[in-house]
Structures are given as C-alpha cells and as structure tokens.
Design a protein that fits this description.
The complex is a heterodimer.
Chain A: E1 2-7, H1 13-22, E2 27-30, H2 37-43, E3 49-53, E4 59-64
Parallel strand pairs in A: 1-2
Antiparallel strand pairs in A: 1-3, 3-4
Chain B: E1 2-5, H1 14-17, E2 28-32, E3 35-37, E4 42-49, E5 54-56, E6 62-70, E7 75-77, H2 157-164, E8 186-187, E9 193-194, E10 204-214, E11 217-219, E12 229-230, E13 236-237, E14 247-252, E15 261-263, E16 273-274, E17 286-291
Parallel strand pairs in B: 1-17, 2-4, 3-5, 4-6, 5-7, 6-10, 7-11, 10-14, 11-15, 14-17
Antiparallel strand pairs in B: 8-13, 9-12, 13-16
Chain lengths: ~60, ~290
C-alpha cells in the first residue's frame, strides 16, 4: 500500500514535490490519469488529493489535501 | 555481463511502426519522489525519476509512451537484497519475475557455509526452448572460506529474448532471477566469529520507453554478500558470496549509445575476518537492448 499525490497540471515540479513529501507520498501524478477517470468521477475526487494504491493495483481510498 | 543489442528493424520508419510497443499512456504522468513499487503493469505517459527516486518494477512490465527520464542519482531497478539486509530472494511474480534465490545464512559455529538458494519457478507456457533455470546457489567452499557467488539468471536469455522481446509477457515465473550467494564458512576457537550471509539474486526488468533519457541507472544487480563479523584471533569466518545478476530488457527509439548505464551485475562478495576469506562476486546476468534508433 502506497500513497500517491495528484496535482493540477499547472503546478511546478517543485510545488508538487514539496507537497508530496509533506504528505508522505512516494510519487505524484500530474492530473487524473485516464485509467482512474471513471472512479474519480464516481467518487468526486478533487485535486490536489492523495490516493492510496493497494498491492493489487486498485485505489482503495482518496482524500483531498 | 553480456550485453546484446538488437537494432532489429532498420530504417527511419521503425519507431513509427513500433509505436504500440510503448503503451497507451493511460496511467498518466508520474514523478517518483521516494521508492515507488509497481503493483501492476503500468502504461505511463511520461515517467520521471529524479535524484533519490527509486522505481521498483517488481516483476511487472513498464511502458512509457513519451519520455522516461532518470536523473543522476535516480534508479529503476529490481536488484537483489544485500546479505546485510537478509539476502532474501524475490518470490515468483507475474508477469516476468521468476523467483530469485536467497543468500545462504552466515554461521557462528565451525563448519562450511550454507549454500545460497537457487532461483526457481515453473517454465513459461510460451517457452518453446529449454525451461529456464537459475544458477545454483554458491556453496561455502571450505571451513573458513567465503561463500561462492550465486549463479546468474536464466542460462540463455538472449536466445529466448530474441524470439519474445516484443512481448515480454509469458506467464508466471517465466524467467528466473539470479541465485543467492553462499554464506561464508567459519572456524571458531576461543573467540566468536560470524560468517557473512550471501546476497540475494536479482530479478527481471522489462522497460519499453519511446524516449529514454537515462542519467541514472537501470539495473538488475545481485545483492552484495555480507561481511563476516565478530572477533577471530585464531579462527576465522568468510564473507558471504554475492547474489547472481538478473535480466534487463530495454526497448526504445533512443540510440543504444545514448541509453546510459544499464547493468545486470553480480553482487560483490563480503569481506572475511581472521583467516577467513572474502566471498566471491556473483555471476553477471544479461542486458538486452532493443533500439530502433540505431
């Protein structure tokens, strides 16, 4: 299980990195990836947010930051 | 380490023809900050691994539709575990990663070192050649000698890769990782030496990136053997042998000469104490580069 940060495309790498570190994320994504778009719409994800990726690759939780 | 280069399709149109091999980018734009472990096959739009970042493919293929950037100090690897960290081998993993061997345990009583574990796993249903077998684990070759290095990954991966490099997906445990290094031998008299544990074998790496900007490292290196420890005024203890190297495939439009550092080295042997000798370096694995850029 690992946390990933999702940031808006307008953010700089420095901004994204700083928030990812402060939120204990191992990586950040720029924008919501197509593969998660349906789940994001269904669950009302807003960005920036942190998503939790489980060992099987599924996203088990999200939280706004 | 053998490095096989396949500029398999000649001509300027080759990269265009093979566009599909780099995936659809559906997993988005990823930048690694700490250590990211893949949980499935990933199809990134772009992948960036800055200094200090580590991407662990964990036996899954990785596609990058655009540019895969690995800065100096960044790493994309399935390296073996160091003996000092337990030398534990990788378990069999879907799609690519057969099991890698565990390093042999060190010992604090007189005797030969424990052998490293061989890599294991079933052969691929798509494998028309000989079933891949990992090298045997190194043996502690004497009462106080360092452990031998583990064997490298599948014995003839280049031949097998030549027929299947574009696919990568074979089935669980299709390719075995490197074998574990042997633990060092030990002679105990009035003191308390402990021989080194062998390093774990490396796994399998498969990366297809349309453009590769690699200033860091891409690797499947065996884990280093642990150093012997304790005191040995009269006796001695050998270091652990290094784990065997794995297999790395890289497919890209970037010219081979610009692909940067890509390795499948055996792990270094650990040092002995007293009359003990150092462990042996693990056997090197194989790097296969398929470049459509020449």
């Amino acid at each position: 299980m690992q946390d990933l940060l999702i940031v808006p495309p307008t953010w700089s790498a420095a901004e994204a990195t700083a928030l990812a570190v402060s939120e204990s994320c191992v990586a950040y994504l720029v924008g919501i990836p197509p593969v998660y778009s349906a789940q994001a719409a269904a669950e009302g994800w807003t960005i920036p947010c942190v998503i939790t990726e489980d060992a099987d690759g599924s996203i088990s939780a999200w939280r706004a930051v | 380490m053998s490095t096989q280069v396949y500029p398999s399709v000649a001509g300027a149109s080759a990269g265009t023809i093979m566009t599909g091999i780099y995936g659809n980018g559906g997993d988005g734009v990823l930048s690694v900050i700490g250590t990211y472990s893949a949980t499935s096959e990933k199809q990134w739009q772009t992948l960036t691994i800055p200094s200090g970042g580590v991407y662990k493919p964990a036996g899954y293929r990785t596609y990058v539709k655009g540019t895969c950037t690995i800065d100096a100090g960044g790493s994309y690897n399935d390296n073996g575990t160091a003996g000092s960290a337990g030398g534990t081998g990788w378990t069999a993993r879907w799609w690519l990663g057969g099991a890698a061997g565990t390093g042999g345990a060190g010992r604090n009583t007189t005797g030969s070192g424990n052998p490293g574990g061989g890599s294991g796993g079933a052969s691929s249903p798509n494998d028309t050649g000989a079933a891949p077998t990992g090298g045997a684990g190194g043996q502690g070759s004497g009462a106080y000698l360092g452990g031998a290095g583990g064997g490298a990954a599948a014995p003839n991966p280049v031949v097998r890769a030549a027929g299947h490099w574009y696919q990568g997906r074979f089935g669980a445990s299709a390719f075995n990782g490197g074998a574990g290094g042997g633990g060092g031998g030990c002679i105990v008299n009035t003191d308390s030496p402990v021989s080194g544990r062998g390093g774990g074998g490396a796994g399998i790496v498969w990366l297809a990136a349309a453009t590769l900007a690699n200033s860091g490292t891409i690797s499947a290196d065996g884990g280093a053997g642990d150093n012997a420890s304790g005191t040995a005024t009269l006796g001695g203890a050998g270091g652990g042998g290094g784990g065997g190297g794995g297999i790395v495939w890289v497919i890209t439009n970037t010219p081979t000469s610009q692909c940067g550092v890509i390795t499948a080295n055996g792990g270094a042997g650990g040092t002995g104490i007293g009359s003990g000798t150092a462990g042996t370096t693990g056997n090197a694995g194989t790097v296969c580069i398929v470049s459509f850029g020449g």
